[in-house]
Give the backbone structure.
Amino acid sequence: MTKKLNRHFSRPAPGRASATVARDLLRLVGAYGGNQPALLREAGLTHLSASLLSPTAPAPALSHEEFTRLHAHCTWALDECAARQEGREPLTKLGVDMLCHCVITSRTLREAIERTDQFSLLIGRRAGRLRLHEEGGVARLDMETVRTVRNACAYLSDLTGLSTYHRLFGWLIGEDIALTDAAMRYPPLLDERTTFYLMPHPLTHGAAENSLRFAAGYLDRPVIRTPQELEPLIRSFPFDLAVPLSKDAPLSERILHLFAAMLASGEAPATAAWLARSFSISEATLKRRLAAESTSLIALRTQARRDLAARLLSDPRLSVSEIARRTHFSDATAFRRAFHQWTGQSPAAWRAELR
């Protein structure tokens, strides 16, 4: 296998997107038969045509939003070309969005990976199957793709897929998943700066399979994102490379998100023992850290139930009994009593004010 690329290129900050990467993506589009001026028109970037398409022109100043649009249009054009080479249908933005909807209610990262593979199986050759291997505390996630043509176009398609999975899985658990290795089946076929911009980790080339390696402990991390958080993400996912993956938030906020996700999917909030195992800490440490944040598991469960109840009461089709069931109360009477303690109003009075 070839040596890894040295990690010495830094990803530009939002608002300072790389013109070098933009030009390289457009160059690839042209090399594989794409109409570069038409693509720029579709992306609403006609005003940048002269500076992007001329290698001798001064480097244009792309805004973060402009680069995201360009990145999306170039990637879809090149993935369509890669699909045409293989005689298959290309993956679409709708397909990526539906994958996100399928995994958002997963309990753990392991379950999210299993669902992703099932989704890949469902849509056929549009996406690579995922194979998870564990050994010695290390997880290896292979992205199997059947390629008869391995050129730069196919390379970009597979690299984008590998990067998309890495970023989606990190976003789901609210952590940047630290990679011990990222590998591609190909020789290095893109400019180093473009490769690192799309996958900011040293890459091993000439591997047996496209893969990611990371600590196996991540697999049992709970999915803490909620369906409500998904909608803002998929507006530009996976092309907005500045979307933060980790939730730099207190433990209490992460647990609150987790409780909200569990209640929304019909499950009771997790126990202290389950949470301690999931966050790789002891129960005593869990309670001590929450106390340091001036809260407790009881308070967080209460807040999650109260927030869900208020949201459900805005739906006139749901009875108070049904809302009580969804918020895990024994009956409507117990729910009414608790809701009055929370708000000083009955559910009916609250609903009347909403109307």
Observations:
- The chain has two domains: 19-220, 249-354.
- The beta strands are 129-135, 138-144, 179-183, 203-204, 210-215.
- Residues 1-17 have pLDDT under 50 and may be disordered.
- The chain has 16 helices and five strands.
